[in-house]
C-alpha cells in the first residue's frame, strides 16, 4: 500500500476535519471577494481605458507634419477627376458614337451637341 492510499483510507481526527472545513470556507470567501473585485474592476478598467483614449486624442501635438500637403491632395484629386472624365468620354463616344474616339474632344462636336439640345 502506498502512502497516499494509506492516508486517504485512515479516518481523520475531528480537529483535522474542522481545519479542512475552515480552509474550504475561507477559500470560498476569498473567491467570492475576488469575483466582486473583478466585476467592479472591469467597469473601472473600461472607464480608465476610455479616459486614456480621450486624453490621448487631445494630447497629440498640434503641429503634425503631413506626408502630402492638403493642396497637393486636392490637385491630385482634381487631376484624377479630369483624367477619368476624359477617359469615359473617349470610351463612351467610341463605343456608342460614330467610332472616332478623338472626335469627342473637338470643340465643333460640342457646339453641335449644344445646338441639338437647344433645338436650334
Which key phrases capture this entry?
mainly alpha; 120 residues; 2 domains
Question: What's a quick, concise take on this entry?
Answer:
The chain is mostly helical. The chain is built from 4 helices and no strands.
Characterization of this structure:
The chain is mostly helical and 120 residues long. The chain has two domains: 12-59; 70-118. It is built from four helices and no strands. The protein has helices spanning 3-9, 14-59, 70-96, 107-118. The N and C termini lie far apart (116 Å).
Topology diagram in text:
Elements: H1 3-9, H2 14-59, H3 70-96, H4 107-118
What is the rounded Rg?
41 Å
Largest sheet: none
**Average residue pLDDT:** 80
The tally of structural domains comes to 2
Portion in helices: over 70%
Number of strands: 0
Topology pattern, helix = H, strand = E = HHHH
Strand content: under 5%
Q: How many separate helices?
A: 4
Query: Which shape, going by the Cα principal axes?
Result: rod-shaped
Low-confidence stretches: none
How far from one another are the termini?
116 Å
For this entry, what is the oligomeric state of its chains? single chain
Pfam family, one: EpuA
Protein name: DNA-directed RNA polymerase subunit beta
Biased composition (Basic and acidic residues): 21-39
InterPro entries: RNApol_su_b/EpuA
Amino acid at each position: 500500500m502506498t502512502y497516499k492510499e494509506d492516508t486517504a483510507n485512515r479516518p481523520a481526527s475531528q480537529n483535522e476535519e474542522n481545519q479542512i472545513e475552515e480552509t474550504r470556507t475561507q477559500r470560498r470567501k476569498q473567491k467570492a471577494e475576488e469575483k466582486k473585485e473583478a466585476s467592479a474592476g472591469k467597469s473601472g478598467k473600461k472607464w480608465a481605458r476610455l479616459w486614456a483614449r480621450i486624453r490621448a486624442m487631445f494630447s497629440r501635438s498640434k503641429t503634425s507634419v503631413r506626408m502630402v500637403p492638403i493642396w497637393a491632395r486636392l490637385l491630385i484629386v482634381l487631376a484624377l477627376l479630369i483624367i477619368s472624365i476624359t477617359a469615359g468620354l473617349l470610351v463612351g463616344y467610341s463605343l456608342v458614337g460614330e467610332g472616332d474616339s478623338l472626335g469627342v474632344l473637338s470643340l465643333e462636336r460640342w457646339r453641335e451637341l449644344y445646338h441639338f439640345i437647344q433645338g436650334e
